[in-house]
Amino acid sequence: MRIGLIAGGGKLPKYVEAAALENGTLATLIALDPFVSEGSFEAAQHLRVGQMGKIIKLLKRAKCTHVCFAGVVNRPDFSKVRPDFKAVRNLPGIIRAAGKGDDALMRHMLTLFENEGFEIISPQEVCQDLMLSDGVLGAVPMPEAHRTDALKACEIAAAIGALDIGQGVVVARGVTLAVEAQEGTDAMLSRVASLPIELRGSLTERVGVLAKLVKPTQDTRVDLPTIGPETIRRAAAAGLAGIVAEAGGAFVIDRTQTVRLANEAGLFIAGLPTAK
């Protein structure tokens, strides 16, 4: 196996790179501008999203058999993409897929790479130790009093996910405080933190649960939910009691720091069975 890693923003690509280097499967690394800053990787080719032809040429030159997409890549403004010839040829289909939603767009992009002869490999296949396991992560248990909020948040997250809206939901005392859309989890949690204290929890009385779930419609080879230190900081600032996700359906980034911050703040992190 020879993996071509196409890296977006965030910390996940660094973990995938390290794991692939350790097992000797990394053939080349392509960092997508402007989502990855110069110097983030020691050996990376920096290319734009619109340089599809050059990306594929580099992957083939490195004799890649598999392609792994990892990291944050926001939906581009297609009027500013500056596509190369190969991207121009595929642009009408890409734009049509984008009109159907983010999941349809991502599935279309994966198919384009598969049609070039590459097999798509997910980040979780490369570094399985990043996955959230079943049960509580850390020293803070999930009190029974918060289970109702957790399950309702999961139910709503599944519903908005089926509509390709987002992956995250915050519920407190049975009331939906926020749903995630294009702004992402961090911005959503900032909105929760700005709500009146009567609606949300506080540093002394934590209330509410963030659920992050895989969308029912999405291709799980890309864009799984991620929990990391910044998630904990923002959830804590919003007065939440904890975070839940599907066991095996979310990454835990910077695990040691993430758990330490959650323990210090008194937040629980729990992996729930997939059926939930």
Descriptive overview:
The chain is an alpha/beta fold. The protein has 2 domains: 3-126, Rossmann fold (3-Layer(aba) Sandwich), CATH 3.40.50; 131-272, LpxI C-terminal catalytic domain (Cytidine Deaminase, domain 2). It has 9 helices and 13 strands. Strands 6-13-11-9-7-8 form a 6-stranded mixed sheet, with helices on both faces. A 5-stranded parallel sheet has the order 3-2-1-4-5, sandwiched between helices. A two-stranded parallel sheet has the order 10-12. β1, α1 (12-22) and β2 form a beta-alpha-beta unit. α3 runs antiparallel to α4. The model has no long low-confidence stretch (mean pLDDT 92). It comes from Litorimonas cladophorae. Residues 2-130 form the LpxI N-terminal domain. This is UDP-2,3-diacylglucosamine pyrophosphatase. Residues 134-269 form the LpxI C-terminal domain. InterPro entries: LpxI, LpxI_C, LpxI_C_sf, LpxI_N.
